[in-house]
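PROTEIN–LIGAND DATA SHEET

This sheet pairs a single protein chain with one bound small molecule, flavin mononucleotide, given as SMILES. Inputs appear in the order they were entered. The predicted three-dimensional arrangement of chain and ligand is reported afterwards as a token string under its own label.
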Amino acid sequence: MTVLKAVLNRDSIRRYSDKPVDRETLLTCLEAARLAPSAENSQPWRFIVLTDSDIKTRFGKNVFTGIYKTSQFVLKAPAILVLCADLDFTANRMGKLFTGIPFYLLDVGMAGEHFALQAAEMGLGTCWIGWFNMKKAHKALKLPKKIRICAMMAVGYPTQDWRLKPHKRKKLEDIVHWNGW
Ligand SMILES: Cc1cc2nc3c(=O)[nH]c(=O)nc-3n(C[C@H](O)[C@H](O)[C@H](O)COP(=O)(O)O)c2cc1C
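PREDICTION REPORTED AS:
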């Protein structure tokens, strides 16, 4: 599969079949994430993979309730990837200080998309999740202060009726400026 084909194949999947995702498959996707680039190769990403259904249910009761209820579909996914960053890195602190850019978000974002593309190649569906109760998620996972949750990702095989639709995106001419704004 070419990179562009994998990109075209990746879709946000919100309905999952009951087919479990085996650990080897998850490990292959995590390996793709591990190989992502990062500022000063700081590799601030940390991944928590929730696959146990009791743990997921308990987690969901804390994290996907109230205004975050719309994210409850995540609990139907066989795996939930929690994408975290260890903020205790010089590259991250210096980057933010001098450029104002929190590099760790770029780093974790790239690692996550590596994961998603590898998952797509293996027939898995994923959905990035930014809509969840951050404070409760941090507490439920008993994370140390220096670990920040950046996003989550639902992971599982799409239901059989899933068909790939063209991605709705802005046209290149609306987003690209050659040789200056
Ligand atoms: C950082 C981020 C957070 C997102 N959060 C959610 C979310 O909380 N719930 C959801 O259903 N989709 C979420 N999405 C998925 C987007 O809605 C989706 O990527 C976008 O609509 C484009 O559709 P596509 O991924 O199918 O191409 C998120 C995507 C990103 C990148």
